Amino acid sequence: MDILLTKEQIAERVKVIGEEISREYEGKSIVLIGVLKGAAIFLADLARSITVDNTFDFVAVSSYGRVRVSSGAVKLIKDIDNPIEGRNVILVEDILDTGLTLSYLRGLMLQHKPASLKIATCLDKPDRRLVPIDADYACFKIPNRFVIGYGMDYAERYRGVPDIRIYPENPPPGH
Ligand code: IMP
Ligand code: MG
Fold first, then answer.
1. CA torsion, points 95, 101, 103, 108, in degrees to nearest 10?
2. How confident is the model at residue 68, as a pLDDT?
3. Ligand 2 mean position to 152 CA, how many Å?
4. Whose CA is nearest to atom 13 of ligand 1?
């Protein structure tokens, strides 16, 4: 599979984003909330590049059925463990695609009344957006190609691939 982004390119951008977050939240503490499973690897690297006090938590979602519909039906299958009221929250995603997942999660998290809520994504595919949502921090904007690696899967495979590669079918069935 062709490499889109090498692990060196990823590491460099994650470091830059981590420094940016550290500057913007200086003197504060942050709760990073990763979206399982895809964001786990990005979150692990991002947390280690942030120098301000931070904790992390995870949520898990599933879309109804295999093929995502434009109704935006997303279901929460694992909620946060700790309260986030009054906290500075950053939702951490592997990839912002149609935007359905993050707009659902953003709405849900806002109900908990955090002091602030931002979005960090490793990848952004702006061409595929179905709902208006933007990331506050994005490592890379990429074209509309299906990718795997660095946490991202095709049918649960390839999450451990250290760089980001283009899956040779565009897009695979069910995507
Ligand atoms: P959205 O709700 O369409 O923005 O969905 C984002 C989710 O779709 C991501 O968290 C990924 O799990 C998945 N996804 C979207 N594009 C890709 C891709 O190119 N490779 C792997 N997973 C993807
Ligand atoms: Mg996924």
1. -130
2. 47
3. 6
4. 95
